């Protein structure tokens, strides 16, 4: 895995491996409060991309055995800096201040560590076995989340800067609040990376043949 990541950051179309140096992300509704009360926020992300997957180091893999459907597949890894860029649209109310803004968003997940837990089923095509993901759950940790929104208060640059500073000072609290949404986004990104590979490359062709001297006879 590490050899493929380092040697082919722009992917291998024949194997279904998509480019990982720039990874497109589906549009998402990041925050979706009801429009009631003194504080509510609706926040959409679009035209999103990730940078940094090409610097991934896979640290541990479990479950890719003779019958991968009988156990949980786990993939552990780390990325020094995972950058997330795109655009946002927000509407809301913060006390007496109305929000209605569009701008650029930026995130840097520093020293990003992940564990992917996959459950798969087996499909058979052309007398070969192919994996299909039916469940993928990511678990992530990081040293810091740097976040910035341009133009959050369209007519007040000072207030935009102040809000961004508050966010970055208290990023752990914001992460805890937004973790479920973030994990859904990460799950879709990782799933998109793996699904095409599993669809195009049979499970039997993913591994080198076992040399005869190491073969085990039942």
UniProtKB/TrEMBL annotation:
Identification of the protein by name: Uncharacterized protein LOC108047914 isoform X2
KW Ubl conjugation (keyword) present: no
Stored Pfam families: JHBP
Listed InterPro entries: Haemolymph_juvenile_hormone-bd (IPR010562), To_sf (IPR038606)
Source species: Drosophila rhopaloa (Fruit fly)
Upper classification of the organism: Eukaryota, Metazoa, Ecdysozoa, Arthropoda, Hexapoda
Biological process annotations from GO: circadian rhythm
SMART domains on file: JHBP (SM00700)
Highest taxon listed in the record's lineage: Eukaryota
Recorded GO CC terms: extracellular space
Recorded family membership: Belongs to the TO family.
Record flagged with keyword Signal: yes
Keywords on record: Biological rhythms, Signal
């Amino acid at each position: 895995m590490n050899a493929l990541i380092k040697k082919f950051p722009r992917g291998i179309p024949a194997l279904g491996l998509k480019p990982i140096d720039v990874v497109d992300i589906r549009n998402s509704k990041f925050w979706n409060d009801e429009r009631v009360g003194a504080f509510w926020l609706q926040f959409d992300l679009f035209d999103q991309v990730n940078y940094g997957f090409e610097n991934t180091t896979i640290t541990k893999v479990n479950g890719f055995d003779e019958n991968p459907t009988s156990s949980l597949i786990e993939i552990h890894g780390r990325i020094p800096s995972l950058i997330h860029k795109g655009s946002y649209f927000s509407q809301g109310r913060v006390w007496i201040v109305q929000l209605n803004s569009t701008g650029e968003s930026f995130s840097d997940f520093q020293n990003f560590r992940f564990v992917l837990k996959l459950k798969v089923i087996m499909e058979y095509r052309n007398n070969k076995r192919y994996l299909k993901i039916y469940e993928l759950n990511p678990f992530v940790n990081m040293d810091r989340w740097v976040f910035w929104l341009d133009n959050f208060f369209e007519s007040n640059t000072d207030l935009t800067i102040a809000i961004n500073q508050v966010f970055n000072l208290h990023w752990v609290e914001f992460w805890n609040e937004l973790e479920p949404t973030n994990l859904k986004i990460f799950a879709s990104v990782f799933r998109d990376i793996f699904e095409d590979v599993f669809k195009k490359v049979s499970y039997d062709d993913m591994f080198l043949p076992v040399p005869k001297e190491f073969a085990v006879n039942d």
